[in-house]
Each structure stands twice: as C-alpha cells, then as structure tokens.
Design goal:
The protein is α/β, with parallel strands linked by helices and about 375 residues long. The protein has two domains: about 50-285, Type I PLP-dependent aspartate aminotransferase-like (Major domain) (Aspartate Aminotransferase, domain 2); about 285-375, Aspartate Aminotransferase, domain 1. The protein is about 35% helix and about 20% strand. It contains twelve helices and 17 strands. The strands form four sheets. The protein has a seven-stranded mixed sheet, sandwiched between helices. A four-stranded mixed sheet has the order 1-2-3-15. The protein has a four-stranded antiparallel sheet with strand order 13-14-17-16. α2 packs antiparallel against α9 (about 270-285) and α10 packs parallel to α12 (about 360-375). The chain is globular and about 55 Å long. Bound molecules: pyridoxal-5'-phosphate. Pyridoxal-5'-phosphate (PLP) binds next to α4. Pyridoxal-5'-phosphate binds next to α4.
Length: about 375
C-alpha cells in the first residue's frame, strides 16, 4: 500500500531526468516528452537559462513574503503587460489560485455575484475554480458548490445571449479548452461574447493557464481573436516547471484589490520570479514565437499527411488535439509510451500533443512515426 492518497489513479513511467524534449525513466529508457508536464515545461527540461536562474537566485535569496518589496515581481509584471492593454499583475502559485483571484476580483469590482462559464471547461480544483468548471466529474461528491456560477453550452451564441442580464459580473472561458478536448472558441462566439460584455459592462476573464505564455504561438491566445479581456490568468508555462501563477488586469480594476483584500504567502517569491523572468526573456522574443508558429504549422501538416483521415486534428500552436471519434484514447497513450512517446489525453476521446516550445522538426518527425504505428 502506498503512503500516498490514490487521487491520481494508476501512474505511469517514473521519470528521473530530462534534457530538452527527451526524458529518461528509472530503467534508463528514453522518451520524447510530448506532454511537457501538461504544458508546463515550455523551454524543455533542464534549459540552461532556467538552471542558471535557479542556481543564481537560490544562492542569494529564496523567500521574503509579500510583507516586503520584491523587485522581481515588478520586472516580471512589466514583461507580462508590455504592449498589452493590461496595467497590473498579481502573482500566486498555480492556475487554480490565479482563477480564484480573478473570480474574487470580478465579484468585488462589479458588486455582482453571477459568473457565466462553459461546459467542458476546466478552471481548477479549489472551490471557486471547481465551481466554475463545466465538468460534472470534477464536482462529484464535493457539493455544495459555490453559488451563482451558470454553466452554458460552449460556442452557443444564442444560449449566451439568453443568459445575459444585469446580474452578470463576468464571463469566464478558455480560448482553447485544453482539458476538455482541445475545443477552440469560434469567431462567431467570440463576437457574441464581445457584444455581451460591451452592452452590459460585463467583465471578461480569459483563463490562459494552458494557452498562455507562447503555447498557441502568440504570447497569449486571446491576441489572435477580437477579444479584449479585462482579466487573464496564467500559470503552467510561466515557470517552466517551477510553480508560478499570475493574474493580469486592466487599470480600472486596480483600486478593487486594495491593501489587505487578497494575498498569498508564497506567491511571487524571489526564486519564482527569477525563473519566470528567465522563461519570459526567451518565450516573449518575437523570433521565438515565430518559430513556435512554424513548428506548429509543420506539425499539423505532417499529422494531416500521415494519419488516416478518420482522425481530426485541431488546436493552435503547440496545443494540438487528435480527435479519435468514439474511440477511447487511453490504450493509444499506453501504446505510445511503450514505443517511447509520452502523450496525455484531453477528455476520453482526444489525444493532446503538448511538446516543449523548443521541440525540433526531427523530434516532431519521430513522434509522427510512432503515432503512425498506433493510429492505424
Ligand atoms: C491546468 C489548468 C488550470 C489549473 O491549474 P493548476 O495549476 O493545476 O491549479 C486552470 N485552468 C486551465 C485552463 C488549466 O489548463
């Protein structure tokens, strides 16, 4: 019997080291890591810039708490908001905490309680973020949930229009539902959201925990749409493997988070900020983002060329999904692992492809060769 709770179910290979896209298990077997620790290891494993940042900062100072001024927070915040319409950042340690901050900020700012979210969304596991999540399997047994979340069908403009009234504080959604099946927002739906927010003064919260920090080929996924969110939330790729979360917001929201209204002990500590700074100094370079777009285009083209047409490929940047129709993907994922390719699902019927943003064409070719032997 394990000394651990069983909440993760049966776990897979025991990975003991990694370099770039390649990881190695305790038996010495190597794998191509096309999970990136679920979109986290954005610069690949053991990237020299991150190793250097951790080493240098860990010898100087790890933690002081938010009682004190932490210069790294200002630096990382400046990088995150540069050339955007955002004015301020708040740092925390995870995606779910970033979403809690967003929910609290939206309620306090508007003085309203009602938040609209969508089916198949995933926003995290704390009570607020769980209540926002549109998946019954995440809620089961944990009720009563936080009140006043209305979960609507995704990409259904008519359902949204019907649900909008003066009680709505915010609409919260992912640009691509990562956990829910790699489902993107249609341009028609984006237009309906923009209209609803404009007409009724509703805040727009975009959960970019998975899609943000270069994953979709731009700094943030919303930049590829007409949407101009008041708040976005970030985590996963931001720390490259170190736990860092963030919420960005517009200038009008500043006064709502007045001193003492919200906080965290660990959030934005000097070590976390030095790592985030190293990640952003690479990922936010236009040439780097350009390369992510080129790799993604190549990956999609190769998938479409080599997989049978019964599989649908979708997604954006290096957040891609292979829809396997009615087939459950768990056995495909296990077969790929046997052959040296690590994958993760997105719901029961979709294989999610999340290589590090530093993946090479050769590694993509190798992954395709393995996928071809599995997806006949
Ligand atoms: C992973 C994820 C979260 C939760 O992040 P944690 O760091 O696990 O708390 C929230 N929203 C989205 C879109 C995610 O992909």
């Amino acid at each position: 019997m394990s000394a651990l709770f069983g909440n993760y179910g049966q776990r897979r290979a025991q990975i003991v080291k990694g370099q770039g896209t390649i990881v190695e298990d305790s038996a010495g077997k190597q794998y191509l890591d096309f999970t990136s620790g679920i979109a986290v290891v954005s610069l690949g494993h053991a990237h020299p810039a991150i190793v250097q940042a951790v080493q240098a900062q860990s010898e100087k100072l790890w933690h002081t708490s938010n009682l004190f001024d932490i210069p790294g927070q200002e630096k990382v915040a400046q990088r995150l908001i540069a050339e955007t319409h955002f004015a301020h950042a708040f740092f925390c340690n995870s995606g779910t905490e970033a979403n809690e901050a967003a929910i609290k900020l939206a309620r306090k700012h508007t003085g309203k309680h009602h938040i609209i979210t969508f089916e198949k969304s995933f926003h995290g596991r704390t009570f607020g973020a769980m209540s926002a999540t549109g998946q019954g399997k995440i809620h089961n047994g944990f009720g009563p949930l936080v009140e006043k979340f209305t979960i609507l069908p995704f990409n259904d403009a008519a359902a949204l229009e019907a649900a909008i009234d003066d009680s709505v504080a915010a609409i919260m959604l992912e640009m691509i539902q990562g956990e829910g099946g790699v489902n993107g927002v249609t341009s028609e739906f984006a237009a309906a959201i923009a209209q609803a927010c404009n007409d009724k003064g509703i805040l727009l919260i975009i959960d970019e925990v998975q899609t943000g920090i270069g994953r979709t080929g731009t700094r943030y996924a919303f930049e590829q749409t007409i949407l101009k969110p008041h708040i976005i939330t970030l985590a996963k790729g931001l720390g490259g493997g170190f736990p860092v979360g963030a919420m960005l917001g517009t200038a009008e929201l500043y006064a709502t988070f007045s001193p003492g209204t919200h906080g965290t002990t660990f959030g934005g500590n000097p070590l976390a900020m030095s790592v985030a700074e190293a990640v952003l100094s690479h990922v936010f370079e236009p040439a780097f983002l350009q390369q992510v777009q080129e790799l993604a285009a190549y990956f999609v083209e190769q998938l479409k060329a080599h997989l049978p047409s019964s599989y649908t490929v979708r997604g954006q940047g290096l957040l891609l999904g292979i829809d396997c129709g009615a087939t459950e993907v768990a056995s495909y994922i296990a077969a790929a692992e046997d052959k040296g390719l690590l994958l993760v699902g997105a719901g029961p019927n979709v294989i999610r492809l999340l290589p590090p943003l530093t993946v090479t064409k050769e590694e993509i070719d190798k992954a395709i060769a393995i996928l071809k032997t599995i997806l006949l």
